[in-house]
Amino acid sequence: MTKVNVYVTLRESVVDPQGIATKEALKTMGYNEVENVRIGKLIELELDGSATEIDARVKEMCDKLLINKVIEDYRYEIGEVAGK
Amino acid sequence: MKFAILVFPGSGCDIDMYHAVKDVIGNEAEYVGHMEADLERFDAVLIPTGASYGDYLRPGALAQTSPAIDSLKAFAASGKPVLGVGNGFQILTEAGLLPGAFLRNKGLKFRSGKAVLTVQNIDTPFTADYKNGQQITLPFAHQYGNYFLDEGTVSELKQSNRIVFTYADSNVDGSTEAIAGVLNEQGNVLGMMPLPERAVEEIIGGTDGLPLFNSILKRWSENNVSNV
């Protein structure tokens, strides 16, 4: 079993209202060094297959459904699942 | 004229759409479930608002995997009218039938109320009964109403006159160029965040949505008459 972590972030050209609100909240708490906050999401996949197979299939899943390329960018990390 | 109303798990306002078509404009309406693939027998498809698939992943994203969307793509390609409102608009962008994508409202909160819109293009199957530049008031209700388009797509839409509605009074949710509704390249698929089916009778607070449904009917009967 392989575990793949897909990290989804908003594209740089896209304003992130959640990030802006969170940055302001951090500043209110006194963390004045914070210059920028961007909020993304993590998608964890557990799947079977050979390394090359998984790479190609995950890319396909991202392109077809997991990511909306109009507003989002992504990268993923492939690792083993311990004890499975 | 026979209207299909697509119903996904989580569609909330299919009954409003049914009421508008069946009871107010007096035409045939039928609910079509997301697992059904037969749309050919219909003259128009309406995609209601709500929160299909609980808005999971991204609003409208999971609906694109249902059989009804495959048939919808064929239906749209045939040139017949397709209208998606609210979540229906989000589904159309996620399915690739309309450009752009949706972000959370600039103020982060869910908002509902009435929006004043400017009708920017009356040369469509959906807006012929309005006047160019007319201001209309329609209800809205969304948390992901912040319509995003990249610069290239915006200028493409402007050049081809595919921006159909813009917010006239305020654009608080942050939509690119205050866009509230857009048309596909072929001109037969309209997506809009405001909800015309909630403004078809005075008793529910206005009738500014009525000309939209009447425009669809008018175009259909024109085509039908010319085919005879």
- Strand percentage of chain A, roughly? 25-35%
Computed CA radius of gyration of chain A, to the nearest angstrom: 16 Å
Number of strands of chain B: 11
Number of domains of chain B: 1
Helix count of chain A equals: 2
What is the average per-residue confidence, as pLDDT of chain A, rounded to a whole number?
Answer: 93
- The H-and-E topology of chain B, N to C, reads as EHEEHEHEEEEHEEEH
CATH superfamily membership of chain B, which one? Class I glutamine amidotransferase (GATase) domain
Anisotropy-based shape of chain A: elongated
Q: How many structural units, i.e. domains of chain A?
A: 1
- Strand order, largest beta sheet of chain A: 2-1-3
Radius of gyration computed on alpha carbons of chain B: 16 Å
Which stretches of chain B are low in confidence, meaning pLDDT under 50 for 5 or more residues running?
none
**Could you tell me how far the N terminus lies from the C terminus of chain B, measured between alpha carbons in angstroms?**
15 Å
Mean pLDDT of chain B: 95
CATH superfamily of chain A: Phosphoribosylformylglycinamidine synthase subunit PurS
CATH third-level topology of chain A: Mth169, Chain: A
Major sheet details of chain B? 9 strands, mixed
* Helix percentage of chain B: 25-40%
Pathway (chain B): Purine metabolism; IMP biosynthesis via de novo pathway; 5-amino-1-(5-phospho-D-ribosyl)imidazole from N(2)-formyl-N(1)-(5-phospho-D-ribosyl)glycinamide: step 1/2
Main location (chain B): cytoplasm
EC number (chain B): 6.3.5.3, 3.5.1.2
Subunit structure (chain B): Part of the FGAM synthase complex composed of 1 PurL, 1 PurQ and 2 PurS subunits.
